[in-house]
Known about the structure:
The complex is a heterotrimer of chains A (570), B (192) and C (368).
Chain A: E1 18-23, E2 26-31, E3 33-35, E4 41-43, H1 46-52, E5 76-82, E6 100-102, E7 104-105, E8 108-112, E9 115-116, E10 127-129, H2 133-146, H3 164-172, E11 190-191, E12 196-198, H4 208-216, E13 222-225, E14 232-235, H5 248-252, E15 258-260, E16 273-278, E17 287-293, E18 296-302, H6 315-318, E19 334-335, H7 343-356, E20 362-366, H8 372-385, E21 388-390, H9 411-416, H10 428-436, E22 442-446, H11 457-460, E23 465-470, H12 475-479, E24 482-485, E25 494-497, E26 502-506, H13 519-529, H14 539-549, E27 566-567
Parallel strand pairs in A: 1-10, 20-21, 20-22, 22-23, 23-24
Antiparallel strand pairs in A: 1-2, 3-4, 5-6, 5-9, 5-10, 7-8, 11-12, 12-15, 13-14, 16-17, 17-18, 19-24, 25-26, 26-27
Helix pairs in contact in A: 2-3, 7-13, 8-13
Chain B: H1 18-22, H2 24-44, E1 67-69, H3 84-88, E2 94-97, E3 116-120, H4 129-133, E4 139-141, E5 156-157, H5 159-166, H6 175-185
Antiparallel strand pairs in B: 1-4, 2-3, 3-5
Chain C: H1 2-10, H2 12-46, H3 66-73, H4 77-87, H5 98-115, E1 124-125, E2 128-129, H6 138-160, H7 163-194, H8 199-205, H9 214-217, H10 219-232, H11 244-247, H12 257-282, H13 303-328, H14 336-366
The complex binds iron/sulfur cluster (4 copies) and FE2/S2 (inorganic) cluster (FES).
One iron/sulfur cluster binds next to helix 3 of chain B.
Amino acid sequence: MSTPTTAELKPAPPPVETIRIKVDGRELDVPKTMPDWQGKPQPTTMLQACAMAGLEVPHYCYHPKLPIAGNCRMCLIEFGTPMMGPDRKPVLNEDGSPKIARSVLPYEPDAARGAIACATPISPGMELYPSSAATKQMREAVLESLLINHPLDCPICDQAGECKLQEYSVEHGQATSRFVETKVHKPKQVDLGPRIMLDDERCVLCTRCIRFTRDVAGDDALGIVNRGSYNSIAAYPGRQFDNNYSLNTVDLCPVGALTSKDFRFQMRVWFLKETKSLCATCGTGCNITAGAREEKLLRFEPRQNDAVNGPWMCDHGRLNYKWVQREDRLSTVISTRTGSGTWTGVLAEVAEVLRNAPKGSVAMVLSARQTNEELYLLNKLAVLCGAITDSIAREGQGDALLVSPDKNPNSNGVRLTGVAYTEMGIQIPKIAAGIRNGQIKTLVVFGEDVTRHGLEGDVLSRLDHLIVSDVLPNETTQRAHFLLPGCAHIEKRGTFVNVKGRLQKFMKAVEPKGDARPEWEFLGELLQLLGRPENFKSLEGLFNQMAKDTPAFAGLEWSRIGDLGVNVKL
Amino acid sequence: MNNARNNLTTVKRTELTFLEKLYVPTLWSGLKVTFRHFWNTLFRGKVVTMEYPEQKWTVPEGYRGAPYLVKDTEDRTKCVSCQLCEFVCPPKAIRITPPGPAVDPTTGNVEKRPKEFEINMLRCIFCGFCQEVCPEEAIFLQKDYSLTGVSRSEMIYDKEKLLALGGVHRGPIMKWKQKADEARKQDAFKPE
Amino acid sequence: MDSIMDFIYLHRELVMGLVKICAVLAVLLPMVAYSVLAERKISAFIQDRVGPNRVALPLLGSVPVLGPFLTRLGIWQPLADGLKSFLKEDFTPNYVRKAYFWLAPAIALIPAFMTMAVIPFGSYIGTEKMVIADLNVGILYTFGIVSLGVYGLVLAGYAANSKYPFLGGIRSSAQMISYEIAMGMSVIPVFMLVGDLNLGKVIQHQSGGLFSWIIFQQPVAFFIFMVAAFAETNRLPFDLPESETELVGGYHTEYSSMKFALFFMGEYSNMIASSAMMVTLFLGGWTLPWFGLNANAPAEGGLWIGIAHIGIFLAKVLVLMSIFIWVRWMLPRFRYDQLMDLGWRRFIPIALANIVITAVILYLKHAP
Ligand code: SF4
Ligand code: SF4
Ligand code: SF4
Ligand code: SF4
Ligand code: FES
């Protein structure tokens, strides 16, 4: 077994320069520089040093993938530096250790002077006190001031349950407020754009949203208007906040100020069952967390994977989940020949058809939306029947950040499993001609509406047998003689290979409706009926078997792919 | 060292007298007690049974019966669909359908009201957690203790039924109203 | 017509026997049903409750005053109970030993009925002796039959093939054997006094007046017999074979519907049989020392006296039944070792001593 070629296995990095500091009295060597939001080395900050010591410093405006702003003051901590004598030499304690000067207010030497941990670099010999009484007091004070005008409408706020203001108030705040005056009220239910609703009262003015859309999405659409306690976020006058990444600001917003119109008031977040999955809208394969309650999909959120999507995803992919649970989704297995409506019956008939089909009379059009495992099984089936196979390419607009012009999630899977070695779709005219001249009598279609890709209705009507598996009804499924309802990727497990050659797995978030079953399950049964028993019992087994048989996946195992995937050779 | 054993006291079992050992006098007194009760019940009507459907029980103050939703004095549903009660309910008797994103102009400052609110009274154990957790004082355990129906679905009380049974709560807290009034006084707030 | 009369004449014994059996059963079965009601009512009163008071018959229930009164009394409750027993699902778990499982309730019930055969429940009606079988070894027969009763319970415990019934069955066999000995020995002095095993003779012996009742001559024997009878009938405080709190229901845990009801009936028939036995042996049977009711009814014109004797007998049985019930709602259950201790280390020695003392007294009395 050769070792998989993964991004993790790079040559050992050169030794890093470190600085020795103390965090809460514990000595620690931290690298002198750390990558900033763009990956460039920058002096390590106190916040990063504390994180290395295993201590989280509360923060609002800081985000590892955004430029540092340092405006919320939540990350204030007490610190000290080695004391320097007039001779610029370190002053020593009696025991010979350097004397530390705690930083204090210049005119009030009893009160600690904090520093914002997110933006202050560390220096040699520095001591950080993220757990000291003074730090605690600073946090209390910051939280109290943040809450002065906060509406505290957590019962109706969508963020409740994943709100940093709630969390820090519980952890670091104080129970009572000393503010007795009337709160400043700011606009509520502000329509920022087609997908975003803003509640200015809840905003803590961290400017994460502004920085994201300006620096990451490249669309300088948001800003702060008004002064003092009337500060509020607004879109540029006359403009909509409508770029294709706008919903990321909802995730970024530490409070319930920016809300997704799609998810707004749909469900409290603590009821969501979260499943690690992928976005299947384009070839990038952004990692997502799918939230569902009681088999109802409610939202997709990006899941951080720095090798693919970082912490972001595009709005189009995020909202592309509703079709899965549409009312008219295919949910009955049926054979129009005999009217049989059970899986055993229909699969037996399909097996009969394929067994009796002479070599060269079968063709298969297999979607690049199927998983690797399914394509592998389908390819086996094709070899067994001597079928000609192809898939369908889907090109569209891409962008510089995430969106790929390839709108199939698994184009590379199609290539690697051997369904289409060369350009996708090249065989379609041949298949059409074969059907026309009566050479091809049986067509197997998985996940595509071939009537829109070169095999129009009149071509299909010449077929003896049309075997179709799909999720939603279309013209091809209407013409099918054997209809095998399959699953959307969110309803099953499997793997995709993205455009850059990263093999990633996804888990099942919701149950399929009615008769619908994962394709790999019934394909395994079909192969068995055709006298080619497969010896996998689960998807794990199937994947491992595929990895053994497919050169590109050699040496991989399901259990070793991990949540973030591995790179394969294209 | 004072042994822990020394702190133990041994309780001596009292020796029974001969008569007691015979049991017969004890039996006799037992028979007397039971006979007295028999006599009193049969001939002097000292019955403790409450014959339920005919005789009803006075529900004491503070009794925790069935939970119902209440309205405020302006005839508005107090519940804001925060779903905390649904979360806390031990037997999962509560099911709330949140309103979804559509903005309802009639609810003013309270953006959120439950679209549907169901309590399955067959599941509810009258524990009172929902009342305790509710941040809006919108649900109260009231005095009904004997709920009946002829089908299971009839025992699932929906929002209208719960509100009708719950009545009006005259508590002093009208948080949303106060907020709206306060905001209206400030120019920055444009409720249009 | 004549031939029938001829037949009756020729087989007088047989026909009269059948008639008596039917009559006894006709009295016994309602008695069982109503002793259940009595149990429920008396227990209710002892515990300051009301007891069954809801079952009303459609027509009778609407008769003013009487209808509500009977309903309150729970008179119709046994009907409802019986109906319910019949209508309930008769469930046989699939792990039981089926044949024994079906047999056990019958075996538990039959001996209780058979004991009745030798009990003289009256003197004479016409020339007919009011006993089904006038055996000269009556008491031996009784003991023989009664000890069969335990088979029903043991079999039930064994057949159910699950742990609680099994424990119940074992307990009942041990308990029955232990107390049978005490019981048997407690009645020996009675027969030493009477000098005959025929139960009719025992009654004859007690017809001399109130103090000729054996209870006054042998109070110790009566006491032991009574306690043993409680144990034999599995009544509280000796209901260890069923003890709901520890064994779920003991030997009848797995039974439902009518089969369960048969065990229930068995328990109450046993109570009636034991009471009848005690009445016969110790309480003068059908006699009453006043109004000349202590002599056999004359063959001519003694019909009413004969009927009165039966009534007296029944009345005495009812009083004893009430005591059974009363004791049940007074005493808690014994612990198993206490039960055994009481049987073997108290009652058997006392009964033995009683025999010896009686023998000595009799010897001294009749010594020349
Ligand atoms: S932003 Fe957070 S603290 Fe503020 S109302 Fe929403 S959940 Fe509550
Ligand atoms: S809307 Fe949210 S992300 Fe934007 S500044 Fe306010 S709190 Fe920060
Ligand atoms: S009283 Fe308890 S069980 Fe009933 S609805 Fe409320 S929380 Fe649920
Ligand atoms: S806790 Fe109160 S406000 Fe929240 S959903 Fe339940 S009843 Fe409504
Ligand atoms: S996180 Fe450091 S100032 Fe906001």
